[in-house]
Write a structure and sequence with these properties.
Blueprint: H1 2-120, H2 122-125, E1 150-151, E2 158-159, E3 166-168, E4 177-179, H3 181-194
Pfam family, one: FYVE
Organism: Rotaria magnacalcarata
Coiled coil: 15-87
Length: 196
């Protein structure tokens, strides 16, 4: 019995040791589970942060693609506008040169016209007064109620409607005006000499 009691006592001590070891294991298990939960939460946060960063990278890649497309469109538009600007500048330069040529031609034409008028005595004739003229300067028909007086806008003489029926656009006029047959021939001859 004493041996059995010793064995029981030894088993009790062993049981207490095992219980302490089990309690320690339980504490270690609880601590490990807590650490594991903390690690799981940290891992989940890292995964969420990684997903957010991936989303940001994807958004940035889309933005970069759109910016590249916009840059290509802008470069093409700028190239087109540069070409148009160069075309406009060339046209403007050509028109400027044309205007200068026309101005020189007009100046020469005016000079020749003045010389021609002075030579033909057109300037000396002046603008006739209605009361001084009784008959047409060309057909010599008398004026009356049915035959009215009309000035030639080139030489200033007075004619009937039939003799001054031609209309031409003269230098200094914005629309065609009446000219006599002689002035009409003279103006058309000058235009033929001066060219277009």
């Amino acid at each position: 019995i004493e041996q059995v009691n010793q064995q029981i006592h030894g088993l009790g001590s062993t049981n207490e040791s095992l219980n302490r070891a089990l309690a320690k294991s339980d504490n270690d298990k609880t601590s490990l589970e807590t650490d594991l939960n903390v690690e799981k939460e940290f891992h989940q946060r890292l995964q969420k942060a990684l997903k957010n960063e991936k989303d940001k990278v994807l958004t940035l890649q889309i933005d970069i693609h759109e910016l590249n497309s916009m840059k290509q469109e802008y470069d093409a538009y700028r190239k087109e506008m540069t070409k148009k600007q160069n075309d406009f500048e060339k046209k403007f330069q050509d028109q400027d040169e044309t205007i200068e040529e026309l101005a020189l031609k007009l100046e020469a034409y005016i000079k020749r016209e003045h010389e021609s008028r002075e030579k033909d005595g057109i300037r000396a004739s002046g603008w006739m007064k209605d009361e001084d003229v009784k008959e047409c300067c060309q057909c010599r028909k008398e004026f009356g109620a049915l035959r009215r007086k009309h000035h030639c806008r080139q030489c200033g003489q007075i004619f009937c409607e039939a003799c001054v029926s031609t209309k031409l656009t003269l230098l200094g006029t914005n629309k065609p005006v009446r000219v006599c047959d002689e002035c009409c021939k003279h103006v058309l001859a000058q235009c033929a000499v001066n060219g277009p």
